[in-house]
Every structure is written in structure tokens, then in C-alpha cells.
Amino acid sequence: MIIPINLGEKSYDIILERGAIKKAGEYLGISQDRRVLIVTDSGVPGEYADTVGRSFENSFVFTFPQGEASKNFDTYRQICERLMELSFTRKDAVIAVGGGVTGDMAGFAAATYMRGIDFYNIPTTLLSQVDSSIGGKTAIDLGKIKNIIGAFHQPKKVIIDPDVLSTLSERHLKNGLAEALKAGIIMDTELFEIFERGEAEKKIDEVIERSLRVKKRVVEEDEKETGLRKVLNFGHTIGHGIEASIPFGELYHGECVALGMIPMCGEEIKDRVISALVKTGLPVSYSIDRERVKEALSHDKKSDIKGVTAVFSREIGTFEFINMTTDELMKLI
Ligand SMILES: NC(=O)c1ccc[n+]([C@@H]2O[C@H](COP(=O)([O-])OP(=O)(O)OC[C@H]3O[C@@H](n4cnc5c(N)ncnc54)[C@H](O)[C@@H]3O)[C@@H](O)[C@H]2O)c1
Question: Collapsing DSSP states into helix, strand and coil, what is residue 306?
């Protein structure tokens, strides 16, 4: 199945198909006279990068240590140095084979090396398949601040192969399901109902497709997050606050988003959302240090002098934007 992302000159296709990674050469359509650097991390089974590499006559692989801690200037510099050593030019390309960390790293290197070379993405975690691989956001972290240095750089193509999820840990799978559930709550009632019936893992192909269609609608209307795209932050404002308040890695990003969504639901739907989270195996309560969460919320990089644009849902499949101060958010938690 091909899902086109219509962004004028920056349009691209998402290919969603089981087994598609084995046809990467054909599907990406990169001519054999171009060189490709495949960027992956040490936790992604090596066979995926090897499979993609075999599709190209001039391919090279760069592997960095897995984990968010690698999403920094050092790794970015190493990728750029590798591109320089290999004398890559603007006619060559970078392909990410990995989760959101790999996609963000490789995408940012591609966005900036020689002022931008072509970028292709083959996401291998559920989170990256339903969310981070499309929309063109690329970034690295600086100090404790996530994604503070980055660029919008749309991929030329994205290949999503649900077969690669077979090697992913159950916890990382659920982590990705949180972002898909988010998409359902704000914009797709039928997607939400799959979660409500506890069928998300069984119907994973449909969950991926529906989540992608939500993200497609949003990014096509607002590529650079000046308006509608903020809706994708549903659950993220408080989620990021929780994430920043606990020891690094104690909860995964999606787990924090799951917790962050609950206070942003109206009483009319809160019980349904909690029940869907429980059926998905995501956390619905956590012991937090309120002072630390408050401190983190007040440093939210998306807030301005008046507070933050929070996303609220009173009815499944709908959302509203509300400007809220840190104190108002804290009252909801
Ligand atoms: N650009 C965006 O729009 C956007 C959106 C959401 C999140 N993000 C970013 O995404 C990152 C999180 O992504 P993530 O959850 O994919 O984390 P991740 O990339 O760290 O992947 C999680 C773990 O799974 C391993 N892995 C990857 N694919 C695997 C597979 N098929 N089988 C077995 N193991 C596999 C990785 O090595 C890693 O250890 C964060 O840095 C976040 O900021 C970006």
C-alpha cells in the first residue's frame, strides 16, 4: 500500500507492506550510481541494515551505540565525518534503518551535510513507524534538553515493514502503541475503538495505517507546526514534564505520553481512555514528584510568556486547544 504525503515539491510516498525491507532497492528508487550511507544503531538487528545494503552497489553502514544518550553532537559529528571521508556529495543519500533515535540522527545529518542531501527512512520500531518517520522533523539533544537542535527535512521515501517488529521488545511495542492511541483519541474514533476492544496488537497493520493517516492529515495541513500540528502534542506537555522529572530511562517516552494523556481528557471520556490504556498494557498511574514535574513544565520549550498551548479532548475523535499556565496544568494532574 502506498500512502502519499502531499507537500508540494517536498511530497513523498510511504510504502506500507510486510516484507518491504527486502525490496528496499526497488522501492526506494535510488539509482545505482549514487552512494548510500545506511545509519543504524547497535540495538537494531544487523540483518536489517545488511538486507538494505545488499540492494545497492555502493552502500556503507554507520552504526552508533543504541539509546537516547547517543542523540547528541558527538554522534552527529561522527556521521558527518564518515560522509566526508567517503567523499559523499549532494547527489548521494542517507538511509536510516532504526527507531526514532536513528531517524532523528540520520535525518539531521542529511539535513545539514552540504546544506542538505537526500534522506530515506526505514523505521524499525512501532513508535517510529506510526509517528517519527514522517513529518520531516529531525533533531538531536543538547544537554538535558531533547530535540533542541534540529531541522525540518522531509524524507524522499519511507518504507514501513511491520515484519521487523517481530524482534522488538514487548515494552517498546507498547511504547509505540501509546502514540497510536493518541492519534485515535484526537482524530480517529475507529482507531480508538480497536484499543478499547484490546485488539491493538492483533490488528497492528490497521493500527499503523490509521495512525499514519492521522499524521498525514495533520502534517499536510501544517508542515512546520504553526497551528494544527500542535495537536500531535496531545499528552506530551505533561508527559514531557514527567519524563524530565524522573531518572533517565525509568519510563519510556510513550509510557509518559500515556500518563500525560489522562489529565487532558474530559470527565466524559476519561474512564474509556484509562480502560483502553490498561488493555494495551500501558501505565495509568505513577508516583511523581510534583515539584520536579512543575519545574520541568515551566521550562517546556514549547511554552511562551502566556503558558503553553495544551491539547484537550472531551469527545473521542476530537480535540481543542487551550492556553494553560503551569499552575493550571498542575491542577489537572
Ligand atoms: N521526529 C519526530 O517527529 C519524532 C516524533 C516522536 C519521537 N521522536 C524521537 O524518537 C525517539 C524515540 O524513538 P524510539 O522509541 O523508536 O526509540 P529508539 O530509536 O531508541 O529505539 C528503541 C530501541 O529499540 C531498538 N530497536 C529498534 N528497532 C528494533 C527492532 N526492529 N528489533 C529490536 N530492537 C529494535 C533500538 O536499538 C533501541 O534500543 C526519541 O528520541 C524521540 O525524541 C521523534
Answer: coil
